[in-house]
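Notes from hallway chat w/ T.B., transcribed later so I don't forget. T.B. wanted the structure written out for a chain they're using in a teaching module, and asked if we could keep both sequence and structure tokens in one place. Agreed to drop them here.
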Amino acid sequence: MLLEVEKLETAYGASQVLYGIDLAVEAGEVVTLLGRNGMGKTTTVRSIMGLTRAQQGAISFRGRRIEREAPDRIARLGIALVPEGRQIFPNLTVREHLVAFADNRAGRADPWTPAKVLGFFPRLAERAENMGNQLSGGEQQMLAIGRALVTNPHLLILDEATEGLAPLVREEIWKCLARLREAGQTILVIDKYIERLVRLADRHTIIERGRVAWQGSSAELAADRGLWHRYLGV
């Protein structure tokens, strides 16, 4: 098991958000975290990354407890987050973003490099010397993914990676994730496009009001449209 979250409870001040979340991701899997807006998905990710401190429960990564580790330490252990909103630096070029974050945290024999990322995203290669604030929303999303990939993470987490993108650009992102899956990258993804996720992912966890409402395989989720309407608003 690469990532294991057990009985996770997290609060913002006096307001508790998560109530005993269990989540597991095996190496090589694509796993989703699903639910309507405000149900605790991003808070779960923030707790995994150490950005919001877990109050109860355990988070283990590669067999090591990390719920009390600092965010920078967790990142160096090999978890990369593509955050909601992309958070691209406006005054760095595409190339500078990739060079600044390049590292081989997973110790890969054939690691992601800035040049390899630019080959993976030809549109970024065309804009390699453009500043972050000169990119379209889709290009910024590709850069956010590329910036995470050059750290060579064991686990890639994507929070709403297709949110707000035009349909054609969104399709490019889905193709990118499918290629990463084929390459063996372990991925935890939050998104709302269930039709695409059941084709991409191995397993799913649905959160409702800070609690796990359902867990199962893509085949099980695809077969039960009632779950879509009950918990996902589809």
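Follow-up for T.B.: The two ends are 31 Å apart (CA to CA). Might be a good example for the class.
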